[in-house]
Amino acid sequence: MDQYIIKxxxxxxxxxxxxxxxxxxxxxxxxxxxxxxxxxxxNLPDVRDINVMLNAIEGIGAMVERVDAHTVRINGSMIxxxxxxxxxxxxxxxxxxxxxxxxxxxxxxxxxxxxGCDIGSRPIDLHLKGFRALGAAVDIHHGLISxxxxxxxxxxxxxxxxxxxxxxxxxxxxAMAEGKTTIENAAKEPHVVDxxxxxxxxxxxxxxxxxxxxxxxxxxxxHKTDYSIIPDQIEAxxxxxxxxxxxxxVTVKNVIPKHLEATTAKLIEVGCEIEELDxxxxxxxxKPLHHTQVTTLPYPGFPTDMQPQMSAVLxxxxxxxxxxxxxxxxxxxxxxxxxxxxxxxxxxxxxxxITGIEKYTGARVSAPDLRAGAALVIAGxxxxxxxxxxxxxxxxxxxxxxxxKLESLGAQIEKVSTxxxxxxxxxxxx
Length: 430
Ligand code: EPZ
Description:
This protein is α/β, with parallel strands linked by helices. It has 15 helices and 24 strands.
């Protein structure tokens, strides 16, 4: 099993290039099968979840051609199978985007029902409510969701809760429905906008993405496009928090600074200096950091996907901070691991109360999920001594070349898989 081994204490300094947004890419790959023409997608992150999604797309008979690590061509004209197997859903929930895509294009789809996951129970009732409102008969049997319609008809849909996944899934199906659909209380995340932009470049007619009312005029057919995915705001934010935790000076490049505003605001509150450039943000953490209060909220609020990384910084910032997690109920699993590194964090219901300590001490810890794993790496980079992070499989689901990028900023980090490699690293850094 691969692990990261880290010798902490080096401030991160330099520039790092941010890749394409994983969560935008997962949905955009699904939209690519909605036309029989060839869609080219660029700036795709080369991470595990994307590769699983590409396998799921091949699994239904679409043609997938990897042009290079970050570019793929997809042709959905040969799709022969409208059932997405559990094998994919089990690995990535986002393969449920194929439900909206297939339903929109073929008016029929079957996708295995995703289970709960490491960050909590994750219902998809709102996705299904949307498909039903569009006129599909949706049924769950033997672990499969099946959705079928003679005709999908545009309608008015109010989402009871702001959901990225439901907004995108419904938007995809409605793009090829008859007539007009309005989605109210829609998610406003940058990746919702990116998916809408991609669909529009394929001939869809979607207005209002990025606001809480999205209006879609259905079209009969979509066509080819070349589309480049937006930068990953969560990857960028992770490096920004790593800079803060190590008291470094890092410029994250190839980002859209507007997408990072909530992260930037919190870093300023804790005492970092931030410089915003056209497509880069520089974080300088030269002074002692102090406490703050954070509540996770849908965009433009503070993202739940940045919550563990923010905790990793607050745990070594002076004073008492709180983090309220309002999106997922089980996103504090990393707290016990940070505690093993010396952090003082108490979780009460959905609030983490963090009393800043001076320094982490390196320990052996396990990544409980993707973002929590990144937070443990951040803690390891700031810690005294050596940290080993197990289960980095999770981290590799969403971060491309994570340790190489950190190394290029001056971190002492290596990916290892044997006791011998651990010893070698330990000798090298001691
Ligand atoms: C997306 O998940 C992201 N995943 C998550 O990122 C991210 O944490 C989340 O949005 C919130 O920003 C992808 O884009 C692939 P939601 P999603 O539907 O779409 C409830 C990462 O680390 N809800 O916006 O599944 C739900 O339980 C991942 O990259 C319903 O009640 O999230 C949650 O409380 C982890 N019914 C809230 O809405 C539904 O039908 C928001 O979830 C759907 C959601």
